[in-house]
Structure formats: structure tokens, C-alpha cells
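Thread: Modeling a multi-component assembly for a lab meeting

Hi all, long-time lurker, first post. My supervisor asked me to bring a structural picture of a complex we are working on to next week's group meeting, and I have zero experience with this. I have the sequence lines for every component (386 residues in total). Could someone generate the structure of the whole assembly? Inputs are pasted exactly as I received them:
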Amino acid sequence: MKDFLIEYAHIVATTILGLLFGLSFFLLFLNFYHYKEVTTTYQPSTENGTAYEQFMKEVQEIKENANTYSQKTYKGQEEVFDMLNMQTKIQMCLKLYETDELKALLTKETYTVNDVYELASYYQNEILNDCIVIQMYNLGSEESPSINSPRLRAISPFLKLEMDQLLSEGLGYLKNNMKNNDIYYFSNDDSKTGVFELTKNSYLEVVNYYRHSLAFLKNFSQWYKNLAIGG
Amino acid sequence: MKKILNILFYILQLVLFVAAFALTLVVMIQMNRRLEKSFMTTINVFVPFGILLVLLMLNMIFNQKTVRDNILYNITSNLSFATIVIVALRAMFDNHLIISTLNSYHMDFNFFANFLPFLKIMLYGLCISNVLLMFHISQKNNDKGKKRKKSVQNS
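Re: Modeling a multi-component assembly
Sure thing. I ran the full set together rather than chain by chain. Output:
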């Protein structure tokens, strides 16, 4: 009886060891795979110029639109103060696109997930908060305390709609997704091609957010230019 | 060959055990310092380490060959300790984990905390299998059993 129990104990011990072998083997190699996943880099295509070069073209165009207005030559019906106020807002926003920090972030040859996270943080802190919210958002208010232009009031609901869209884009979700890259997930090459590749797709999403914000500024500056020329 | 492998695995097992314990201790101390918690709250993580240490010492003192010469036990414990070491090292030094770059400790506690249940499963599993392997059929009983078998075959 004793011998039987001892043999039985050995069988149980071997079974436990077998299960543990499987678990530790799985975890060990999952760690190697996960390390490979999180260190994946992305090299953006430079066929049509880098993202920074493309953005700078847009920035230059917006700057030209904003500079159309000159207090000396302007003979329109808008108040000078309103025109200057709008011009300053556009110029303040453009300064945020021309910083060395953004240049360094956008001119990298290869991107790790950390770089993309920094790019997303810059967009959130500087572009959304300092440009869209602080500078531009009150242009979307129909009862803007600083600007009395009736023409601006006519387009303010559309401005507000566009700015709300910019603010509600899934940047928070994207950042959280990157922040959670320490959790094992069971992606494979097939799912990566069809679903979401953390570094590459996050980069493309963030760059698109920058494009959307520039498109908004460009549209506004175009309207401003027409106002300055049209008089 | 098997004997040499067992000796190698046994030595490696002791080294990895010390490394796994030390690295877990470092991460847990830092984690508790960050959360401003007493170290006693994490004692349950170190209980299986303590039990395993006692068992390893018993194996050494009583020269328990059923455990020491069990190649499956040696390989499994090596794999388990190696996994703990690698996870702790990644939590400490893997800068690609975003959270480790966000806090000033430069350590991803979340990554290590997610691993704690597996760490406990592996260590308690090793403890249980070590205890079960300690029991062995004595040589006398074994000889008796063999004789009985032979006599049955002869008759």
C-alpha cells in the first residue's frame, strides 16, 4: 500500500512538473516574441517627401494666406482689430508646427513605438491644447467676446463642428493602446497584416491627425485670405 | 551523460534561483516604494521562494537523489527561474515598454505585476512536486519486490 502511494505521488509530481514545464516554456518564449513585437520599427515612405516636408508646404501656404492682410492696405468693412486678432491666432498656431521639437520628431528615418508615442503626445499637448483649444476654439463660439465680425459668426458653427471633430478623434484610445504594449497579446503575422500593427499603424494614424489639423487651419486661412482680399 | 547533465542543471538551478529571488526583490521594493506601501504587503510573493529554499536545503542536507537526479525537475525549475529572471530584467531595462519611460523609476511595474500569478503558480508547483518526489521506495522494499517478482516468474 505504502509503495503504491509513493508511486502515485511520483506520478502526480511528474504530472505537475509536465504542466509547469509547458507553462514556463510558453511564458519564456512568449517573452522573446513579445520583445520582438515591441521593438518592431517602422520606416515611413519618403517617395513624396517626408511627412515634415509635406507639412511645411502646407504651413507655408497657410502663412502666405494669413499674411495677405495688411493694416495699411486693407480697405474692407471688417474691424482692424478683428482682422489682426484672427491673423495672430493663425500665426500662433503655425509657430507650434515649426518648432525644433516637432522637426526632430517628424524627420526620423525609423520609428519605434516610443517615438510614435512622443509624436502623439506632442500633437495632444501642443496642437490640440495650445492651438485648437486655446487659440482657435473661441472662433467657433457664436458669442465670441474678442471678435465681433458678423462674417465670422456666419461660419462659426462650421468651425466649431470641425474643431469638435479634431478634439474627439481617437487620439486617447491610440495613446492608451501604445501605453498598454506591456501586456502580452497574441498577435501573429496574419493578424498584423489585416488588423493593426502597433508601431506602423499608430504612426500613420498620428500623422493623419496632424494632416487633419493642418487641413482645418488651411481652410480657415483660405477664408481669411478671401476676407482680406475681398475687402 | 545523464549524471553530468543533472549536475550542470542542478548548479544552474541554484544560480538562477538566487538571481530570480534577487531581481524579484528589487522590483518589489521599488514597486512598494512607489506606492508608499509597507513591504509586508508583498510578503506573499516571497513565501514560495522561502519554502523552495528550505526544500532545496533539505535536498542538499539529506542528499535526496530522487529530487536531485530527476532531470525533468531540474529542467523545469531552470526554465521557471529563467522565465522569472527574464521578465524581471525586461521590467527593469526594456525601454520599449511605454510605461517604463513615463514614470521616473524607469521600470514597468505593470508588466511585472501581470506576471506575479504565473510566478506563484510556478514556484508553488515546484514546491509541491519537490515534496512529492522526496518520498521514495526504500532499497530494501525495492529488493523484496524484485525477489517476489522473480519467484513468481520461476514458479
